[in-house]
Design a protein that fits this description.
Layout: H1 2-18, H2 25-32, E1 37-42, E2 45-67, E3 73-77, E4 85-86, E5 91-95, H3 98-134, H4 139-171, E6 174-176, E7 181-186, E8 193-194, E9 203-218, E10 230-235, E11 240-249, E12 259-267, E13 278-284, E14 289-295, E15 305-312, E16 315-325, E17 330-335, E18 343-344, E19 357-361, E20 371-373
Parallel strand pairs: 1-19, 2-20
Antiparallel strand pairs: 1-18, 2-9, 2-13, 2-14, 3-5, 3-8, 4-7, 5-6, 7-9, 9-12, 10-11, 10-13, 11-12, 14-17, 15-16, 16-17
Length: 380
């Protein structure tokens, strides 16, 4: 038990030295009296940046349809497989429609018979009207014939409607692609019964000629984004970037996260982008400005609020700064640092405020190309 009593304080001290816990004053004084740490310093680099708003999302097809029958029947033909490319109107599946075709034929025959009766009554009425006008036959006979014709015409209309519905039911035994695309999934087999209620899904067709990426950006960035704005979309799985356009901005803000959904459309005529791929979106906010840039490894912390250490009189002096993440492992310093201050970079993991340091000046980056100003979509 005595051994554990000794080890526990040692472990606690070790954890305090590795983490971001504030050391007591005595520990700070001890750090100040420690051996000097060899560090490199650099002054912030003035660099032109193009502001962007960044977020992440998932690629989705511009159109997708889960296809099922509008009538119930047994699948007798399934001519497509997953991955097949289909044109609009292509046959996806056929159901057994023998009984429906028989019903349609019977309905058509019935309509034809009633149509013949109507024509016969029309001819007879045309013959009787002149006779009634001359008084050869009573006018009541013509009136009775007109009533018969009116009833026959009503029957004909109903029969024709029934025949049309029967033909439509027969056409519904064939399931067709509503648009050109790719069969992404086939969920049933020949011999299975597909129902219209509850609806069965036989296959899914997607249009990947273009993709849409739905992403969320913080409410504070909304004023910098507009429909039609240019965007660059990178797909890590492909290690490629594509040009895109903001096609839609949601009319409402999520009050829980204080974010708004935007949709970016990307052309995919090459067919290399697949539905469900993760995407990194950078929307160009317009304008170029000069920024004070540091390597991200010169900062400590996450998000917009971080700490840096500057070299002053042989000591490391801690500064609280506000930054804006940029691409290529860099950040823009917005507040808390002067342009001519010597910043310790890279930042040693155990460096503390007031620690003695010896310095060497780090070579400033020679890259003068414009960077894209990255804004995290994390609402926090």
């Amino acid at each position: 038990m005595r051994r554990f009593a000794i080890l526990i304080p040692l472990v606690m001290v070790g954890c305090g030295s590795e983490g971001g816990v504030e050391l007591p004053a005595s520990a700070q004084e001890s750090a100040a009296d420690a051996e000097p740490v060899s560090v490199a310093t650099r002054t912030p680099e003035a660099r032109e940046v193009e502001p962007t708003v960044r977020s992440v999302g998932t690629a989705e097809p511009i159109r997708a349809a889960d296809l099922g029958p509008q009538v119930t029947g047994q699948i007798v033909d399934l001519p497509v497989s997953e991955g097949d490319t289909v044109e609009e109107g292509a046959i996806i599946a056929r159901l057994d429609g023998r009984s429906m075709r028989a019903g349609a034929a019977q309905a058509a025959s019935s309509a034809q018979g009633i149509d013949a009766q109507v024509r016969q009554l029309e001819q007879e009425l045309a013959r009787l009207r002149p006779l009634a006008q001359r008084g050869t036959i009573p006018s009541q006979q013509v009136d009775q014939m007109e009533l018969q014709l009116e009833g026959a015409r009503a029957q004909l209309s109903a029969a024709r409607s029934g025949a049309s519905q029967a033909r439509t039911a027969v056409s519904h035994t064939t399931v067709r692609a509503p648009f050109a695309g790719i069969v992404s999934r086939v969920t049933m087999e020949v011999g299975e019964t597909a129902t219209n209620m509850p609806p069965s899904i036989i296959a899914r067709v997607v249009d990947l000629s273009a993709v849409e990426i739905a992403a969320r950006i913080p409410e504070r960035e909304l004023a910098r984004v507009s429909e039609g704005a240019a965007a660059e979309v990178r797909f890590p799985a492909l290690d490629r970037s594509f040009s895109g356009t903001v096609s839609r901005i949601a009319p409402e803000i999520d009050t829980q996260t204080r974010t708004v959904e935007i949709v970016v459309r990307v052309d995919n005529r090459e067919g290399v982008i697949r539905g469900g791929m993760s995407a990194e979106v950078a929307i160009r906010a317009g304008g170029v400005r000069t920024a004070m840039v540091l390597p991200a490894d010169a900062t400590r912390g996450m998000g917009d609020s971080r700490r840096v250490f500057v070299h002053r009189d042989g000591r490391a002096v801690e500064r609280q700064v506000r930054v804006h993440p940029l691409g290529a492992g860099t950040v823009e310093v917005l507040e808390g640092l002067e342009a001519n201050e010597a910043v310790i970079s890279p930042l040693p993991a155990r460096l503390r405020d007031g620690a003695p340091v010896t310095t060497q000046t780090a070579a400033a980056s020679s890259e003068g190309a414009a960077l894209e100003d990255e804004t995290s979509a994390d609402p926090t």
